[in-house]
Amino acid sequence: MNDIRIPDAIKPVDGRFGCGPSKVRPEGVEALSAVSRTFMGTSHRQKTVKEQVARLRRGLADFFSLPEGYEVVLANGGTSAFWEVATFGLVRQKAQFAEFGEFGAKFAQAVTDAPFLAEPTVHKAPGGQAAFLTAEAGVDVYASVHNETSTGVAVPVRRVAGADEGALVLTDATSGGGSLDVDLRETDVYYLAPQKALGSDGGIWLALMSPAAIERAYEIKATKRYIPQFLDLVTAVEQSRLEQTYNTPALATVFLAAEQLDWMNAQGGLPWAVKRSAESAAAVYGWADRSSFATPFVTDPALRSAAVATIDFADGVDATAIAKVLRANDIVDTEPYRKLGRNQLRIALYPTVDPTDVVALTTCIDWVVERL
């Protein structure tokens, strides 16, 4: 298979289609290189780094049209750390989850394992389908996923009708934020990662928080609940207001994410990014619908993600072999989510990915299948 050479004329200009870490724009890396001696390896308590943290927070606020009173909060550890942060600092007693993939399940498990919280309610759906939140007395946190990275299912961000007064809505936008449309007034915490649509590296979490969510964090801390300092949400809020993090952040990650946001905002912000991702989605799903051997894994068109596409292949067409040939030809990270265990490819559709490259990818897949 490594001997199959795809003609350069039909290959994407950039062959990176990973769902995270995702494609980083070369221009961002060049900009980082230009400040390598003045930014990298400098103190995160000083102006040079604080200016980049401020730039990142300002870029997020502009990109998502941050509602009045909402704040951009960041800290180290990525989304995996934020699930623990929210478990300690946002769930007062009982949570409800909509779980329809690997990542939604991890947050639900963190709350389940917390000995100081009640057993959560978990609405589950199998891979390729969606689960939804419903009003339930006594629930003070409702948590769902905007885009399930493992399956390519996306659902709208909406508040829960009939929920108890004061109940918070938490939205995992790890891979959906920046590619999918959202009205932040429909959620209290919209948290995301820099290594997806923001075209950066990993290592930090970013959260767009409502005044009610910030108030809840202070309320819980006042109860003297034990909260590890690294996972203390109040600390993260207060440090973010100072344009810094509790401990040293990944400086390259901060810079690259800020650079990406400046680029996306210059293109037209969230509306532009949503349109660009939708163009890529139309290209890949349209190709799969027309194909004799490929079909979208998510059968309901309304649930198909414009951030992550999952494409199943017919019996007799080995997706693993296709991915290996693509990788040997510098078209990388099209492999499916490992735990899903399906004969499929998974393709990132983030704004960094050019829709014309997605079209070229589908052409290459057809070309490879003919030769396999």
Automatic annotation (TrEMBL):
Span of domain Aminotransferase class V: 140-331
Chemical reaction(s) catalysed: O-phospho-L-serine + 2-oxoglutarate = 3-phosphooxypyruvate + L-glutamate; 4-(phosphooxy)-L-threonine + 2-oxoglutarate = (R)-3-hydroxy-2-oxo-4-phosphooxybutanoate + L-glutamate
SUPFAM superfamilies: PLP-dependent transferases (SSF53383)
Keywords, sorted A to Z: Amino-acid biosynthesis, Aminotransferase, Cytoplasm, Pyridoxal phosphate, Pyridoxine biosynthesis, Serine biosynthesis, Transferase
Cofactors demanded by this protein: pyridoxal 5'-phosphate
EC nos: 2.6.1.52
GO biological process: glycine biosynthetic process, by transamination of glyoxylate; L-serine biosynthetic process; pyridoxine biosynthetic process
InterPro entries in the cross-refs: Aminotrans_V_dom, Pser_aminoTfrase, Pser_aminoTfrase_mycobac, PyrdxlP-dep_Trfase, PyrdxlP-dep_Trfase_major, PyrdxlP-dep_Trfase_small
GO MF annotations in UniProt: alanine-glyoxylate transaminase activity; L-serine-pyruvate transaminase activity; O-phospho-L-serine:2-oxoglutarate aminotransferase activity
Pathway listed: Amino-acid biosynthesis; L-serine biosynthesis; L-serine from 3-phospho-D-glycerate: step 2/3
Family: Belongs to the class-V pyridoxal-phosphate-dependent aminotransferase family. SerC subfamily.
Protein function: Catalyzes the reversible conversion of 3-phosphohydroxypyruvate to phosphoserine and of 3-hydroxy-2-oxo-4-phosphonooxybutanoate to phosphohydroxythreonine.
PANTHER family assigned to the protein according to its UniProt record, in alphabetical order: ALANINE--GLYOXYLATE AMINOTRANSFERASE, AMINOTRANSFERASE CLASS V
Designated name of the protein: phosphoserine transaminase
Species: Actinoplanes siamensis
Gene transcribed to yield this protein: serC
